[in-house]
Q: What sequence folds into this?
């Protein structure tokens, strides 16, 4: 994979962002504040012009991975990497400005949102290793996180994922597989474009809905796949074989992206799958620590499942 599209912040831009964040932080103490979220897109236009133009170009060109580098992260000021997301949300002050910046940047790509079932319904999620949960997907470390589209098959899956790296001492990469890099025979592609691949539905795991894996433009398709949970239609030998071929093609296409502290990076959830290799956390307060937000480009589609127009939380219990 060629390197991601990258913008490196200039000193004057860092100062400009810092001044904006000081103004916003003085008004809003919590990133989940409905008033802040209603105003976030407008406030985001106070970010440096070059940054805004970069995000607009990456969104329009459907860049699969793009990075804003060199945002300063003071490691000492962060304090200890939280032992779980609850502790991370409680220790709010040390990361408040980073959360605000992530949400403001994300607001130029779409609407940040979350699920009520995800880390207590908080908009910004903490990605940290959790002792005793090394084999659980959301908190895993010693288990590989298999490649996947975020919430593949879910009707409100995010269009983009946004991250900021606060700490990554072991340089654990994200593994990225681009739809553009898949080498597949036309006959296999045709099968993968048929609704023959099922995912358990969030909120109703016993219900499996079938959809295509490849969709959109024939020459530059979108991709929705999950190496762990997705299954070909029972009894369909052609679908099963195509799924095996796709898995091998994605494995071949995977490339590492190592994020550095201060990197804001965004993944197009229709253009790439992502995962992570296993690693051994030290649980010494200095482990890998990422912040993540989900971004949708059609928030109205989820309106029946949110408490109000200004609410960015999809109520898991309403999904059915």
A:
């Amino acid at each position: 994979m060629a390197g991601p599209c990258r913008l490196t912040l200039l000193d004057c831009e860092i100062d400009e962002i810092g001044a904006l964040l000081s103004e916003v932080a003085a008004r809003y103490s919590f990133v989940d504040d409905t008033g802040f979220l209603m105003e976030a897109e407008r406030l985001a236009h106070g970010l440096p012009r070059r940054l805004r133009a970069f995000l607009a170009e990456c969104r329009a060109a459907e860049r699969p991975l793009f990075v804003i580098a060199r945002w300063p992260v003071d490691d000492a000021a962060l304090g200890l990497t939280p032992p779980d997301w609850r502790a991370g949300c409680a220790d709010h002050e040390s990361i408040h400005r980073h959360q605000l910046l992530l949400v403001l940047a994300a607001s130029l790509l779409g609407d940040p949102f979350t699920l009520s079932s995800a880390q207590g319904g908080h908009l910004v999620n903490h990605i940290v290793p959790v002792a005793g949960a090394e084999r659980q997907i959301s908190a895993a470390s010693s288990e590989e996180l298999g490649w996947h589209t975020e919430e593949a098959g879910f009707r409100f899956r995010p269009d983009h994922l946004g991250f900021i790296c606060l700490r990554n001492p072991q340089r654990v990469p994200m593994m990225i597989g681009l739809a553009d890099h898949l080498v597949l025979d036309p006959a296999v592609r045709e099968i993968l474009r048929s609704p023959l691949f099922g995912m358990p539905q969030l909120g109703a795991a016993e219900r499996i809905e079938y959809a295509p894996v490849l969709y959109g433009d024939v020459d530059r398709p979108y991709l929705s796949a999950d190496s762990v949970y997705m299954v070909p239609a029972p009894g369909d030998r052609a679908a099963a074989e195509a799924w095996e071929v796709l898995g091998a093609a994605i494995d071949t296409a995977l490339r590492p992206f190592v994020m550095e502290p201060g990197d804001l990076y965004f993944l197009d959830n229709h253009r790439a799958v992502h995962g992570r290799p296993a690693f051994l956390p030290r649980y010494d307060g200095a482990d890998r620590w990422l912040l993540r937000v989900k971004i949708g480009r059609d928030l109205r589609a989820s309106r029946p499942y949110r408490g109000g127009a200004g609410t960015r939380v999809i109520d898991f219990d309403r999904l059915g």
